[in-house]
TrEMBL record:
Belongs to the Gfo/Idh/MocA family. The lineage of its organism: Bacteria, Pseudomonadati, Pseudomonadota, Alphaproteobacteria, Hyphomicrobiales. Pfam families: GFO_IDH_MocA (PF01408). PANTHER family: OXIDOREDUCTASES, TRANS-1,2-DIHYDROBENZENE-1,2-DIOL DEHYDROGENASE. This is Oxidoreductase. Residues 7-123 form the Gfo/Idh/MocA-like oxidoreductase N-terminal domain. Keywords: Oxidoreductase.
Length: 333
């Protein structure tokens, strides 16, 4: 494709999150959605009409074979990410896969291995790692402005979790740990990978009658320090705006004070200097940053993102596996 041409996106799984993604995609220069696919053609057509998308497919194989699609965004339930990612990759499509990337580390490794074998781009849709303020904070930490990271703490929620929704259904991969703890795990990996070096993992959770972890707490510790993260679903609640995190180093600290998922404001203390308030212009287009990152990678022929590298995705999935063994007694599914 020409460097100046639009990146043409396809979406499979036209649900709520896909709708938000499509809205941001339509407002992101250099990218456009040209196709959507669902197992229900009527649902795909309705989504296409709502979002001004040219083509609707009634099966996923048609998306994999669509010559007008440059990259596919997988927004189906994560219980099906592995199956659908393989189908798209076997059809020659680069991918962005909605979080969690897969149900477990083995599935994630298989997707990445197939992408590498086919010479195709694949990226975990962890938009927090592409957020401008997060990238600014990561740069400061990597420059040594807070010294060596020693302690991390994240609190999520209470998050909305209707009883009859996907997040409560074990057949669809319902799990607070997979659905939400994947965020602080990725944030920790992006800011302080030293705290993820061979950590001891301790985790606990609250299980529903259907065996789904509706809340969990995870503690990681190693020779460098420790990390703790916790949260849970509360039916009818939407507490994303009170989800925060803090990172303490031996020469300073930082704290995101507004929104763990899409940070816009933070406090930063470096080497005994004056406390700084950092901010980036707020954007309602929270998916824009990951869309731009994937598009830039495709234009430059990259097979992986440097902001969300494969190694980071795999390390996080392995830690989630260990956490789920303790929380639910087994790796999912």
């Amino acid at each position: 494709m020409a460097p100046s041409s639009d990146i043409r996106w396809g979406i499979i799984g036209p649900g709520w999150i896909a709708g938000l993604f499509a809205e941001d995609l339509a407002r992101t220069p250099g990218s456009k959605c040209v196709a959507v696919a669902s197992r229900d053609l009527g649902r795909a057509q309705s989504f296409a009409e709502k979002h001004g998308i040219a083509r609707a497919h009634g099966d996923y194989a048609a998306m994999a074979a669509d010559p007008e699609v440059d990259i596919v965004y997988i927004a189906t339930p994560h219980s099906h990410h592995h199956q659908h990612a393989r189908l798209m990759l076997e059809g020659g499509k680069p991918l962005m896969v909605e979080k969690p990337f897969a149900m477990n580390a083995a599935e994630a490794a298989d997707i990445i291995a197939l992408a590498n074998q086919r010479g195709l781009f694949v990226m975990d849709a962890m938009w927090t790692l592409c957020n401008p303020l997060f990238r600014r904070l990561a740069g400061r930490v990597q420059a040594g402005d807070i010294g060596t990271p020693r302690a991390f703490a994240a609190s999520i929620g209470p998050m909305g979790g209707p009883k009859n929704s996907r997040v409560s259904d074990p057949e669809l991969g319902g799990s607070f740990t997979l659905e939400c703890m994947v965020y602080p795990m990725n944030i920790l990996a992006g800011l302080a990978p030293n705290l993820l070096a061979d950590p001891k993992v301790t985790a606990s959770g609250r299980l529903t009658e259907r065996g789904v972890d509706s809340a969990s707490a995870i503690h990681l510790s190693n020779i460098d320090g420790h990390a703790v993260m916790s949260g849970g679903f509360v039916p009818g609640a939407d507490g994303a705006d009170i989800s925060t995190f803090r990172l303490v180093g031996d020469e300073g600290w930082l704290a995101v004070t507004d929104n763990l998922f899409n940070p816009g404001r933070a406090l930063f203390s470096s080497r005994g200097g004056e406390l700084e308030e950092l901010a980036e212009p707020a954007s309602e287009q929270r998916y824009r940053w990951e869309i731009e990152e994937a598009a830039n990678c495709l234009r430059h022929g990259r097979k992986a993102s440097t902001l969300v590298p494969h190694e980071l995705t795999l390390s996080v999935m392995k830690l989630l596996d260990q956490s789920l063994i303790q929380t639910r007694g087994r790796i999912l599914p």
